[in-house]
Write a structure and sequence with these properties.
Oligomer: single chain
Largest sheet: 9 strands, mixed
Distance between the termini: 51 Å
CATH topology: Alkaline Phosphatase, subunit A
Radius of gyration: 25 Å
Number of strands: 17
Number of helices: 13
Helix content: 25-40%
Number of domains: 1
Structural class: alpha/beta
């Protein structure tokens, strides 16, 4: 029977359906179809959790991932001692035998490098920020800067994989996939997990495993939005096929899938049915959600001149807000180019020029729409940068190598204490000395804000129950309201 539900029928319902279709001139079948449609719509939007573990403080997440690892020393974690000792050697007692990357490990000299940028306090909280972040400074009282993040990963691939999936090794589900699996979607016409990359940016490669579903059913993987007339690949109908023809095709395809389920019930078959139906609904919902032409001029002024150019970080921030308004659960923005091994002063200034205003505007925009209170915004990269110079230190140029032992991120909205800092690093900016926050702790905190106990959202695979935080992680309660 032709209907528009997403098709999560299980094998035992099939014979019953045929029986009811034969009974009472098919009226029983009509009633069952309506019932199944309601059940299927619920299955399409609902997650595996029958109820939340506790009251959530956030309903959705916007993750602004700065790929390449921004230098915390030049943005968030001011270290005057480095300027005093600029050019001196990194003390052995500070390094404490830590391995360095192959890019700087063989240097005969490891000179300390102070930041060339001035820091100042901002907002009623007095949050200390670099001069490179004048727009972020305007929302200082909304931010919680965590200065004591740390990780085991020292290279970009494992580092980004760790931050996104809770493991350095490929194959685990990403954060967005876990949330989709646990909570489902608030909007059955849009994907629960959307990914956007800044167009035309070079840097460390961004690969699909960062937003993949791993061993979870494939319907939980992120849907990548691209700039241009076709935000989602292969969504539009090919030439010669209209919406009515597409509907007929999907109905016929669904019947074939149901016949296959009768013989061999499979989650992947059910996933294919659901994804085909979602793509059909998205043919009308995606163009509306991604159409920025209806945004007023003052919004583009708020996010900056680049916001009118599709695919820029600024335009993606505007789109992230539109998706948040429409109930998308997890929105992931990637911005490459933060890997400043050389010419740090010029490179990081350029990066901040592209991201500072849009990031701050997103906070302001969400707040003025009363969305910030239940939207968690996260800004950060995969690890930090060294306090010493990679290569030769000159008066005009220097670079910083990878540094996993401490780095900074910020969070805002959705249950986060604004205008605060958490954690402390030593005066050299090399080690965490107070309130360390591991990636697993960050993930546990994120899930907690969404109403989930990170130890209880699990998936059985290869004989054990996996979770985003593996067997680690503690909620950082001090950063929560």
């Amino acid at each position: 029977m032709t209907d528009k539900c997403t098709g999560y029928d299980s094998a035992p319902t099939m014979p019953r359906r045929r029986l009811l279709q034969r009974f009472g001139m098919g009226l029983g079948g009509l009633a069952l179809a309506d019932l199944l449609c309601d059940e299927a719509a619920s299955a399409a939007t609902g997650g595996t959790l029958s109820k939340l573990h506790h009251a959530p403080k956030a309903k959705r997440i916007i993750c602004l991932f700065q790929s390449g690892a921004p230098s915390q020393i030049d943005l968030f974690d001011h270290k005057p001692l480095l300027n005093e000792k600029h050019g001196e050697q990194l003390p052995d007692e500070v390094r404490n035998g830590q391995r360095l990357t192959g890019m700087s490990g063989n240097q005969s000299s490891i000179p300390l490098a102070g930041s060339p940028f001035k820091f100042a306090q901002h907002g009623e909280s007095g949050l200390s920020l670099s001069e490179l972040l004048p727009h972020t400074a305007m929302v200082a009282d909304e931010l919680c800067v965590v200065r004591s993040m740390y990780t085991e990963a020292i290279n970009h691939g494992p580092g980004t994989t760790f931050m996104q999936t809770g493991s350095q090794f490929p194959g685990r589900p990403s954060m967005g996939a876990w949330l989709d699996y646990g909570l489902g979607s608030e909007n059955s016409d849009l994907p629960a997990f959307v990914v956007m990359n800044t167009k035309g940016k070079g840097g460390q490669p961004l690969v699909s495993r960062f937003w993949g579903s791993g061993f979870l059913p494939s319907r939980h993987q992120g849907v990548r939005f691209r700039s241009g007339s076709d935000p989602v690949l292969y969504l539009n109908n090919p030439a010669g096929l209209d919406s009515a023809g597409k509907r007929n095709m999907l109905d016929a395809l669904r019947k074939l899938h149901e016949l296959q389920i009768e013989k061999n019930s499979s989650p992947e078959i059910e996933t294919r049915i659901a994804q085909h139906e979602l793509s059909f609904r998205m043919q009308s919902s995606i163009p509306e959600a991604t159409d920025l032409s209806k945004e007023p001029d003052h919004i583009f002024e708020q996010y900056g001149k680049d916001s009118k150019t599709p695919g820029t970080y600024a335009a993606n921030c505007v789109l992230a807000r539109r998706l948040a308004e429409r109930g998308v659960r997890f929105i992931q923005l990637y911005h490459q180019g933060w890997d400043q091994h050389g010419n740090l002063a010029g490179g990081i200034r350029n990066q901040c020029g592209q991201t500072d205003q849009p990031s701050a505007a997103l906070i302001q925009d969400l707040k003025q729409r009363d969305l910030l209170k239940d939207t968690l915004v996260i800004w950060g990269g995969e690890f930090g940068r060294t306090n010493y110079c990679q290569g030769k230190l000159t008066a005009k140029s220097f670079g910083r190598d990878h540094h996993p032992r401490c780095f900074s991120i910020w969070m805002a909205g959705g249950g986060i204490k604004g205008g605060t800092t958490y954690g402390t690093t030593d005066p050299y900016g090399y080690n965490v000395v107070e309130n360390p926050v591991h990636i697993h702790d960050l993930h546990a905190t994120i899930l907690n804000l969404m109403g989930i106990d990170h130890e209880r959202l699990t998936f059985r695979y290869q004989g054990r129950r996996f979770r985003l935080t593996d067997v680690h992680g503690e909620v950082v309660s001090d950063v929560l309201t």
